[in-house]
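Translate sequence into structure tokens.
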Amino acid sequence: MTHAWKKAGARTASVAVLLAGLVGGVYLGQQRETPAPVALAQAEISDMQLLKERQNEHTAARAMRHQAENEAAGKAATEAKRAAKQARTLETKRIAKKKAEAEANAGPVAFNGPIPGSCREFSGSRAIGCTLMLDAGFGIAEFPCLNQLWNKESGWNYKAENRSSGAYGIPQALPGSKMASVGSDWKSNPATQIKWGLGYVKGRYQSPCGAWTYFQNNGHY
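Result follows.
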């Protein structure tokens, strides 16, 4: 083989080696680049998962804030109702106290009926009692018994009150509210109290003297 052919063969071999290396490099490059889309997809999936987790966290946080706001609103409404109820209770007590004070400070309801001559020796509630006793059909001879009976019970004081028993008024009705059957002004009207007392005496003891006799023997009537 001539020197020229040897030289040409060497060049041909070099080109072949170079081509083989180039092809191998391309192949290896392709093999290396193939996983790139997979890695990118995994990164996108991780980002989506992270985004979902954050969205879930935000959703949970909003739900907790909403629940807390509802609980706070419920507590505020409950407190407002309690305060309103307490205010109503205090106002009711204040009105009742004011009414009681007004009744306690008010004078007796005036008696407008005529006082007969046989009762004019008495005054105040006794004169009213004498008059109403005659109107109830009892004779004037009964009044000394009635006078002594209610002297013992109340001293003829229309405000007389037994705090331990609840008895009230001139006849010491027990409870005092019984006298409402005669009139709603039973707390401040001696005539209302006396009318009720005479009815009680007549129904149970037939007469003031009968009631006084029972009281002397028993200490009450």
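Note: The radius of gyration is 56 Å.
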